[in-house]
Design a protein that fits this description.
Layout (H helix, E strand, L loop, with lengths): L15 E6 L8 H14 L3 E4 L4 H4 L9 H12 L3 E5 L7 H6 L26 H18 L5 E5 L11 H15 L2 H8 L22 H29 L4 E2 L1 E2 L8 H4 L7 E3 L11 H18 L5 E5 L18 H11 L2 E6 L26 H13 L14 E4 L2 H8 L10 H16 L3 E4 L10 E4 L9 H10 L3 E5 L21 H5 L1 E8 L5 E6 L10 E13 L3 E6 L8 E8 L2 E6 L1 E3 L1 H15 L13 E8 L2 E8 L5 E4 L6 E3 L5 E2 L2 E4 L4 E5 L1
Parallel strand pairs: 1-2, 1-9, 2-3, 3-4, 4-5, 6-7, 7-8, 8-9, 10-11, 10-12, 12-13, 13-19
Antiparallel strand pairs: 14-16, 15-16, 15-17, 16-20, 17-18, 18-19, 21-22, 22-27, 23-26, 24-25, 24-27
Helix pairs in contact: 5-8, 10-14, 14-17
Length: 683
């Protein structure tokens, strides 16, 4: 078994529970702040993010700093045994700064300087803004770097965005010169002879010309380089005066930001997730699958330490429509879903609702009523009481035999290519299609980029591996030859790292040769169209032999592989849909179409049985119920969750002894779960 991991905050052996706290908005009402500290104890909270958008409260006019209010809050946090995640305020600059130094405001795609509005509207390149950030971060670090309440630094907030000012364009051209060396290499990589877009001088390289999709992919790489560079810039004064870990909050699968790259330079992985489950939602289970997939992705960014929810919601986010109230039990289920996926902290936006502005109706622990006698507060307090019974879970890990490959750059390549039927979220949807059958069986899946080592797994699934980077196909072949099972799909091995299509008889830089197929062409269907698919040769799919494929139907030819399913209609009737190719000791599968989840259930169910992949419970789980397992020493912790609006019963293994962590009682035979209910068992 793996050794227990360290906790998020060294020496703080509690599940982090709290959220964004904005006392700077209540300086005019000290009695409210005093009441907050009374309510914090009642809610069972212990960790709070401070100062995320507090720059004007720190520096109301240029060069005049006021930290007295934060001194009082930090001292009170330390006095009460709470922990502070202190943010740098760069996510929203003061108005005086925007008007004194207009060059710090971003320039949009039309060449217009942005107004002072919203947030995240600063230029990554601006020397003026960087200097202002350095000054405020240095003052915060000098003042609070060794404060007993400080547990972690929080850089900015949900970092994102792009700027097209002259400074950024110059940096872009310098970045390209360093990357490609010569214009000839750049022109070849972007296929810029198309439409006579050949560049003859670096100053001509204009990133807003999206007819060159290779350039668009590089622009996203560049803006991510800017973001990472700015993050590291912000960290410098903090590192100089403090040993506290540093992070910033991510945003799930937010397409423009390559979080796999950003994860390399943060100390702790922190994500913002707002599931907003509603029991009568026909897509409830699929929503739960999507959220679990993201949790597994975030868990795998830094497998040597736990991750946390920096933001979630105790009630209804005001930006989700309709703003359904969170039903009883749902809040706890959402938070335990994160813990089951390896998190060790669940924090909220926000602690107390503000009286005005655009988030005044966003869910909060403390409502406008201002007291503890609300259902939302009781939900948080109940969770806090449960968390006090779960310290033994800290340090446990998730163990997986299955990995999936998720690449932000591959997604960019697909979504920025004008091509056959590309749709928003198609890449993420395909991932969750393949993740879904494992989720239903409680089988853990690690989610990795294709550049990570996947040799230690038994099964590797690579849906829509559009952009095949150097060495990936060779590593996949070595994995299969050594006995692994590799599965890929349509729209895989199409382009190289420049988004240039592969050519030749075995496209995909060897990936299609590994699979033993050639995908000649692709039929993209209307939303309401499907094509029948029939399984072949044996009962691998059980009694059901006919399924449906939709959206994408690749027309493939066998080149050494064996067909396990074929189309049953249209001119490509009889052409392979699912193939298997034996290479060395292992097997490579290719799926030519986007098939219904029932097909994937049958296929992966057979694979799980044949390979005897580890499952936390032997009995089949009811639809909509999942189990996430964490392990520490000889103890296994089962987070069992029911994403149905009806009660379910789960059969436990008769040979095992189970202990419910909520009350310490033994559980045998079957476990009853309420609608949208959760439980945690140890065995």
């Amino acid at each position: 078994m793996s050794n227990p991991r360290p906790t998020i905050f060294p020496g703080f052996n509690q599940i982090l529970h709290g959220g964004d706290y904005n006392p700077d908005q209540w300086q005019h009402a000290p009695e409210v702040i005093e009441e907050d500290f009374r309510l914090i104890k009642l809610a069972g909270c212990n960790t709070f993010s401070l100062g995320i958008f507090s720059w004007t409260s720190y520096e109301p006019e240029e060069g005049r700093f006021t930290f007295d209010w934060l001194d009082r809050i930090m001292d009170r946090m330390a006095q009460d045994g709470h922990r502070a995640i202190l943010a740098t305020p760069s996510g929203a600059k003061p108005a005086w700064m925007s008007f004194t130094y207009p060059e710090i405001r971003r320039v949009d795609g039309q060449g217009l300087r942005d107004l002072h509005r919203r947030r995240h509207n600063h230029c990554w390149s601006s020397p003026v803004y960087r200097e202002k950030v350095r000054i405020i971060n240095t003052k915060l670090a000098e003042r609070y770097g060794k404060h007993p309440a400080l547990a972690m630094w929080h850089i900015s907030n949900e970092m994102n965005g792009e700027c097209y000012c002259d400074l950024c364009l110059k940096w872009w051209q310098e970045w390209l010169r360093e990357k490609y060396g010569t214009l000839e290499a750049l022109n070849q990589a972007w296929w810029s002879h198309f439409w006579s877009h050949t560049f003859t001088d670096w100053s001509q390289v204009e990133p807003r010309d999206f007819s060159l999709d290779g350039m668009r992919v590089d622009w996203l790489r560049f803006t991510n380089h800017q973001l990472r560079d700015f993050y590291l810039w912000e960290c410098r004064p903090l590192r100089a005066h403090s040993v506290a870990p540093i992070t910033t909050n991510f945003m799930g699968l937010h397409p423009p930001v390559d979080y796999a790259k950003l994860a390399e330079i943060v100390d702790v992985i922190a994500d913002d997730q707002y599931p907003a489950y509603y029991p009568d939602d026909p897509n409830l289970v699929r929503s739960a699958v999507n959220v679990s997939f993201k949790g597994n992705l975030y868990r795998c960014f830094k497998p040597d330490r736990p991750w946390m929810l920096m933001e979630s919601c105790t009630g209804a986010p005001q930006w989700k429509q309709p703003t359904h109230l969170k039903r009883p039990g749902v809040h706890q289920t959402e938070m335990l879903q994160a813990l089951g996926g390896g998190a060790e902290g669940t924090c909220y936006f926000q602690w107390r609702k503000g009286r005005g502005s655009c988030e005044k109706f966003h869910g909060a622990v403390v409502d406008h009523a201002g007291h503890e006698h609300t259902r939302e507060f009781r939900d948080v307090a109940d969770l806090g009481a449960l968390y006090r019974k779960l310290p033994e879970v800290l340090g446990s890990v998730v163990q997986s035999e299955v990995a999936m490959l998720y690449d932000w750059e591959s997604r960019w390549g697909i979504e920025h290519s004008d091509g056959p039927g590309f749709r928003d979220e198609m890449y993420a949807d395909a991932m969750c299609d393949h993740y879904h059958p494992f989720w239903e069986q409680g089988i853990s899946v690690d989610v990795l980029s294709s550049e990570r080592d996947f040799s230690g797994y038994r099964v590797v699934i690579a849906p829509l591996l559009w952009m095949l980077k150097p060495g990936v196909a060779a590593r996949a072949r070595a994995f299969v030859e050594a006995g692994g099972v590799f599965i890929t799909t349509f729209f895989s091995g199409i382009c190289d790292e420049h988004n240039l299509c592969f050519t030749g008889g075995w496209p995909g830089d060897g990936l299609m040769a590994l699979c033993g197929v050639w995908n000649e062409e692709t039929d993209v269907l209307r939303e309401d169209e499907t094509r029948r698919v029939r399984t072949t040769g044996g009962a691998w799919a059980g009694k059901k032999r006919v399924y449906q494929a939709g959206h994408v139907c690749g027309v493939a030819h066998l080149r050494g592989a064996k067909a396990l399913a074929v189309y049953d209609q249209d001119f490509y009737k009889g052409q392979p849909v699912l193939t298997r190719n034996t290479v060395g000791k292992g097997q490579a599968y290719y799926l030519a179409a986007r098939v219904e989840v029932d097909f994937l259930r049958a296929f992966y169910g057979k694979l799980v049985r044949d390979m005897t992949l580890q499952r936390p419970l032997a009995a089949a789980l009811p639809r909509g119920v999942t189990v996430q397992e964490r392990v520490k020493a000889q103890t296994r912790y089962l987070f069992i969750q029911n994403f149905n609006n009806t009660a379910k019963r789960i059969a436990l293994d008769a040979t095992c002894k189970y202990r419910r962590l909520r009350d310490g009682k033994a559980v045998r035979g079957t476990l009853a779960l309420a609608p949208m209910g959760s439980d945690i068992l140890a065995r």
